[in-house]
């Protein structure tokens, strides 16, 4: 369909609608077809955009997004809790790794399984289940007597995160009016980064409580979980899911409740007709994932959705967040407590810039926001890499070679750079105004990375003349380049690549494929999250830090090409119309605009349903 043809049809239709609208207005009837906005002729104008949005939609979005808050809190809180836990429970590296990654691994599994639950039980029940699971997980964590019970608690919480991460965006998208959908779904991502920020503040506050502080850190998530559970006991199911299950009376009632005093007939008809059409098109029966893969538009939507989630994680967000404390140490922050509070500043930056995304998403659209974000993310990663490269090239030499009775690998290194890349060693040095002196590379203790196994750095004192122990980093005068890279990275990532993969995934699948599509893409997000965070230190060991960040920058360039070629704009479209954006070839999606895929459903005039083509607008497509 050519653009000029579209334009002709739309203009023509618009004038036809214009006279009809006039008649309707003359008749004192509120017409939903006639909004002269850019949404006219799509489902987007099935609701009057100028009418105030009922507060109820915001209440629904808030209670659902508590799932995002829990997702952010439980993934964020563990780093601070681990500092206390590893001392109190004497955890070795394997147990620390297990307690951190078991949650993300469990989230991957439950996100994949959540697709089935979502289709079967509905969005509301899934949100209730996830908040219940979160509450139980929080209670287990706060009373855990040993590390095994802690592991059970972390896995339980992960199961809740997985279900919430795939259900909440879908639920919000399904209850939102089209013109607010992007903003409301993005609020879920705001709650994720908000949860991460709250977690870092809680970590900071309870880090002073060295005995049992972790119980409060891990257990506090029970509060929002219980709030969400009780809230959702009183909140309705998604009208789209109800209609799909043939519960049309309930669907109509819920839609009416959500839309307040606006007329819902047109929206209701559009959803119903679409469900019928979809069922015919995609053919019933069989495994949904096979139907998705066998049907061109849904297969392409799935590729776009999973690709976005994969590139979100491949752009290294979680290593940047995780690595922020080390970056800050490089910048000269030596005190543990200060480092914890500065890490809170990092997550605050992520949160504040997600807010920018909420503001921008309905102004510039998903596509431009994602592209701009990727471009900035790539440039900031390059800056980070250059900062690490400069630090490596100017890495302080090792001047002292004490006799190493353990015969460790540490004695072979000539500069701090290689010493810090070896996980068994750390850099022990003194410094004065002009630089580093009296430096050595010595083994780290088995029990903690805070000290050397022996020698001058084995028992740290606060005395000003005592040597400094640097594990996993090197002192450098280029830390400001790295710090700038970090801040710019978050400022670019947070408004676009952070939230858009979740937002776009909640919109691009037709109803029959929505639960499964979101389950797969959320699963891909969690799987790549585990992969990237577990491999980071090994990648850094092989490629060095600058090599690792250059690699992420390269992956971002691939992401940029992918988004440029394949991500269509979904802004302002009725969910039911979005499938049409994927009818062309995969990598021509970028060329489709909402205007190029107008799809007219029903227009109700004075209570009658008819298709425009049945009447005077027969040349309208
Ligand atoms: O969208 C979120 C957000 O950007 C978080 O900061 C990040 O930790 C998650 O992995 C991601 O999925």
TrEMBL record:
Subcellular location: Cell membrane
Family matches, as Pfam families: Sugar_tr
GO MF annotations, alphabetized: myo-inositol:proton symporter activity
Reactions accelerated catalytically: myo-inositol(out) + H(+)(out) = myo-inositol(in) + H(+)(in)
Any one Gene Ontology cellular component term annotated for this protein: apical plasma membrane
Ranges annotated as spanning the membrane: 55-73, 93-113, 125-145, 151-172, 184-202, 214-235, 339-361, 373-392, 478-498, 519-537, 543-563
Domain Major facilitator superfamily (MFS) profile: 60-571
Phosphoprotein is among the record's keywords: yes
Presence of keyword Cell membrane: yes
Topology relative to the membrane: Multi-pass membrane protein
Principal location listed in the UniProt entry: membrane
Keywords: Cell membrane, Glycoprotein, Membrane, Phosphoprotein, Transmembrane, Transmembrane helix, Transport
Region of interest called Disordered, as start-end residue ranges on this chain: 27-46
Family indicated by similarity: Belongs to the major facilitator superfamily. Sugar transporter (TC 2.A.1.1) family.
Function: H(+)-myo-inositol cotransporter. Can also transport related stereoisomers.
Protein name: Proton myo-inositol cotransporter
Organism: Lates japonicus (Japanese lates)
């Amino acid at each position: 369909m050519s653009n000029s043809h579209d334009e002709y049809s739309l203009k023509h239709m618009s004038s036809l609608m214009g006279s009809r609208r006039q008649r309707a207005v003359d008749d004192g009837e509120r017409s939903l077809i006639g909004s002269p906005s850019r949404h006219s002729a799509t489902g987007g104008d099935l609701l009057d955009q100028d009418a105030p949005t009922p507060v109820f939609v915001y209440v629904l979005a808030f209670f659902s997004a508590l799932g995002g808050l829990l997702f952010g809190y439980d993934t964020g809180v563990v780093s601070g809790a681990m500092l206390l836990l590893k001392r109190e429970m004497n955890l070795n590296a394997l147990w620390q790794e297990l307690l951190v990654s078991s949650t993300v691994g469990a989230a991957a599994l439950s996100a994949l399984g959540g697709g089935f639950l979502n289709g079967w039980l509905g969005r509301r029940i899934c949100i209730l289940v996830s908040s219940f699971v979160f509450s139980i997980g929080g209670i287990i964590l706060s009373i855990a007597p040993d590390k095994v019970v802690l592991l059970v608690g972390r896995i339980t919480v992960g199961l809740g995160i997985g279900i919430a991460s795939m259900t909440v965006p879908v639920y919000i998208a399904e209850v939102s009016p089209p013109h607010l959908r992007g903003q409301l779904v993005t609020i879920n991502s705001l709650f994720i980064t908000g949860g991460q920020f709250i977690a870092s503040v809680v970590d900071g506050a309870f880090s002073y409580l060295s005995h049992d502080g972790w119980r409060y850190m891990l257990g506090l998530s029970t509060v929002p979980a219980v709030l969400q559970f009780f809230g959702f006991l009183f909140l309705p199911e998604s009208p789209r899911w109800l209609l799909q299950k043939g519960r049309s009376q309930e669907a109509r009632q819920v839609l009416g409740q959500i839309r307040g005093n606006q007329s819902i007939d047109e929206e209701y008809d559009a959803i119903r007709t679409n469900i019928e059409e979809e069922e015919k098109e995609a053919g019933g029966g069989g495994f949904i994932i096979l139907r998705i893969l066998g049907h061109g538009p849904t297969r392409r939507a799935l590729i776009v959705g999973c690709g976005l989630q994969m590139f979100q994680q491949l752009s290294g967000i979680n290593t940047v967040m995780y690595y922020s404390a080390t970056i800050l140490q490089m910048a000269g922050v030596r005190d543990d407590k200060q480092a914890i509070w500065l890490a809170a500043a990092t997550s605050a930056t992520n949160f504040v810039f997600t807010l920018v995304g909420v503001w921008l998403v309905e102004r510039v659209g998903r596509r431009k926001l994602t592209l701009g974000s990727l471009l900035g993310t790539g440039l900031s990663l390059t800056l980070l890499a250059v900062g690490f490269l400069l630090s490596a090239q100017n890495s302080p030499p090792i001047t002292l070679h004490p006799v190493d009775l353990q015969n460790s690998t540490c004695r072979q290194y000539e500069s701090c750079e290689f010493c810090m890349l070896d996980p068994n060693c750390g850099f022990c040095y003194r410094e004065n105004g002009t630089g580093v002196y009296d430096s050595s590379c010595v083994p780290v203790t088995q029990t903690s990375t805070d000290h050397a196994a022996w020698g001058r750095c084995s028992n740290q004192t606060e005395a000003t003349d005592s040597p400094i122990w640097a594990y996993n980093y090197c002192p450098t005068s280029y830390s400001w380049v790295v710090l700038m890279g970090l801040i710019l990275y978050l400022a670019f990532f947070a408004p676009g690549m952070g939230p858009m993969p979740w937002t776009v995934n909640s919109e691009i699948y037709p109803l029959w494929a929505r639960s499964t599509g979101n389950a797969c893409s959320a699963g891909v997000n969690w799987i790549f999250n585990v992969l990237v965070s577990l491999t980071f230190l090994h990648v850094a060991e092989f490629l060095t830090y600058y090599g690792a960040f250059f690699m992420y920058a390269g992956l971002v360039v691939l992401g940029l090409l992918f988004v440029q070629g394949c991500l269509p704009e979904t802004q302002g479209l009725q969910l039911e119309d979005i499938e049409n954006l994927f009818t062309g070839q995969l990598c021509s999606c970028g060329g489709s605009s909402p205007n190029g895929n107008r799809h007219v459903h029903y227009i109700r005039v004075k209570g009658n349903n008819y298709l425009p083509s049945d009447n005077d607008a027969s040349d309208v497509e």
